[in-house]
Amino acid sequence: MTKQEIVIEAGPHVWIINGGDQRPNATPDYNRLLRFDRRAKDLNTTPHDDRFCVFHVPFEGANVMGIAWDEALHRIWYVESRRPKSATPVLAWFNPDELECENFLDYSVPGAVAAASTRYCTSASQTHCIHTVPLMDWQDANERLSWAAHVTVDAQAVWVAGFFSGAMSCAVSPRCATLPD
């Protein structure tokens, strides 16, 4: 798959970016990535839709704006443009088979986010977490990728586009900044 959108298809799954107020206010501002499994059945014995798996993005104000599926590496890639503007935007990825679904995480409950199972990785070799690549110093047609918005994957690289310019920058590949396996 080479096209990046807010909703993407990846085999039997449909991925959707959900949440994030995108305006600073007093309420918690978290994004989630939703995976809908078209093969699964919604059971009558549960109050929720069993076809959904919700992945929590741990950074408050992440402002997730792009998502792409990497079939070759079995990874979901997405961009966190992050607020406040002083925060460093990141390209993030994870293996969906390694993270737990957090469908019932209630952001209004004090301590719920701190107790959530999803965390950012602290080393390149770590598993069962979300890996991040800082985008702060990468140039995009002389525009700092402070508003990185879209991501796409091809056989050679992971590409990130700026929200305002639409120009693409090579983000992860032997031809540009590399990400350890």
Care to describe what's here?
There is one protein chain. With 181 residues, the protein is mostly beta strands. 2% of the residues lie in helices and 36% in strands. It is built from 1 helix and 13 strands; from the N terminus they run βββββββαββββββ. It has one helix at 112-115; strands at residues 7-10, 13-19, 31-37, 52-56, 64-70, 75-80, 90-94, 131-134, 139-140, 143-144, 148-153, 158-162, 168-172. The strands form 4 sheets. Strands 1-2-3-4 form a 4-stranded antiparallel sheet, with no helix packed on it. A 4-stranded antiparallel sheet has the order 5-6-7-8, with no helix packed on it. Strands 11-12-13 form a 3-stranded antiparallel sheet, with no helix packed on it. A hairpin with a 2-residue loop joins strand 9 (139-140) and strand 10.
